[in-house]
Each structure stands twice: as C-alpha cells, then as structure tokens.
Amino acid sequence: MFALNLPQYPIKVTKRDGRHFIFDDLRRKFVALTPEEWVRQHFVHYLTEQKGYPTGLIANEIQLNLNGTTKRCDTVVYDKQAHPRVIIEYKAPHIEITQKVFNQISRYNMVLHVDYLIVSNGLQHYCCRMNYKENTYEFLQDIPDYQQIPDVII
User: Fold this and answer.
1) Residues 34-82: pLDDT tens digits?
2) Second label for 53, Cα 20 to 30 Å away, from 31, 75, 116, 147?
3) Long-range contacts made by residues 59-64, C-beta under 8 angstroms, separation at least 24?
4) Using alpha carbons only, what angle is made at residue 57 by residues 154 and 152, rounded to the nearest 5 degrees?
C-alpha cells in the first residue's frame, strides 16, 4: 500500500471477492483495507508497541451523538477508569492535515472532553494537549507515552 512515517509490523491482509481486508486486532476481525484504515492499523500498532498504550483501553470506530447526529471517532483511548482521554482522527496519506480536520476532531471533543487530540495521515502526526482551565491547547513535539497520561480520579 503506502509507505508511512510509522513503524512497520506483521500485517495480516487477505483478499475476498476481489477486495482487500486488513486484520484489526482491537475489533478482532478483518475490515476493508482503505488508505485511512492502513494508517489506523499502523498508528494503533505504534501506540501499543512503541508508546505503551494497553490494547484493552483503545477502541476503534466509537459512536457518539453530536447535536442529534451520529458520528464516529476513529480511535478513542481510555484510562483505567474507562474515561476517554485521547481522540485520534486518521486521514489517508494523500489527505493534507488542515484546520478542517482539527475542526472535525474538536467537534467530537465537545462530547468526549478528552485531554489529548491526535491527527495523523500516516506521514504527519499532530498532538495537542487541552487545557480546560485556561481554555487553551498546546501542540506537543511528540505523542505522549501512555504512562504520561495521568488517570483522572473522580
């Protein structure tokens, strides 16, 4: 498919009825292999293998209700108390990361109210940390390791 700015991993791809499918370890099934899915699978593998994110606390295609419409977050990372902490939005490698993409993930965050927003097209990755007390955000140089994301205690 495409060379990405992410580590390679042992990919499981199959072909059925002329279409390619890639195995999603989180959903435990083969899903249609699109350019965006190619990015998602590589990025999730990067998070689990390089950044220490527990697979049991990551979910793909999370449905939410936003102003009466159903939307889907590409990936959500939770803390150990099952609170959403990170939203990740993926785009195909040929799609430029623009303000429109950040607007999309920000709308999702109106519902989930997470601490980190990540956007990736597999070539470029952007991560910002939300500061709700000051109503600001800060772009980070790197994706934080899971241990750097403090648990919220309510």
Assistant:
1) 999 999 999 999 999 999 999 999 999 999 988 888 999 999 999 989 9
2) 31
3) 59/26, 60/24, 60/26, 60/27, 61/27, 64/108, 64/111, 64/112
4) 20
Number of other residues whose CB lies within 10 A of the CB of residue 80: 11
Question: What domains, with CATH codes, occur in the chain?
Answer: 17-145 (3.90.1570.30)
For 70, 87, 147, the CA distances from 150, given in Å and listed in that order, are 29, 15, 7
Handedness of CA 110, 114, 116, 119 (dihedral sign): negative
Amino acid at the residue 39: V
> Which segments of 13-135 are extended strands (E)?
13-16, 19-24, 29-32, 58-66, 69-78, 84-90, 116-120, 125-131
pLDDT tens column, 15-30: 999 999 999 999 999 9
